[in-house]
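Entry 14. Structure prediction run on the chain below.
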Amino acid sequence: MIPVCRLEDLPTGESVRVDTTPPIAVFHADGELYAIDDTCTHQDASLSDGWLEGCVVECPLHAASFDLRTGQPLCLPARRPVRTHRVTVDDGVIHVHPAAQEGTAA
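Output returned:
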């Protein structure tokens, strides 16, 4: 479990990058919190720097879009999903629970 920031410090429609390996982006969208790997699967670009509309983030580099709920790409040029992570709030602090990477133990 990784503390991110206070809930009040992440307004709706905004995101924050967590400098983990690999980096994780946390989004406050449509009243919910979502966390995905921060790097676009098409090319190395930070998704936390992208454009957020509802539960969709658009990569700032080549406009690939991803569903924050599932990590699935919604259009080309991305073909592979980004990994999603569980998010909780405890005493007003947002926490990310990183999903296991492929080939590693949970």
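The mean pLDDT is 94.
Filed with the rest of this week's runs.
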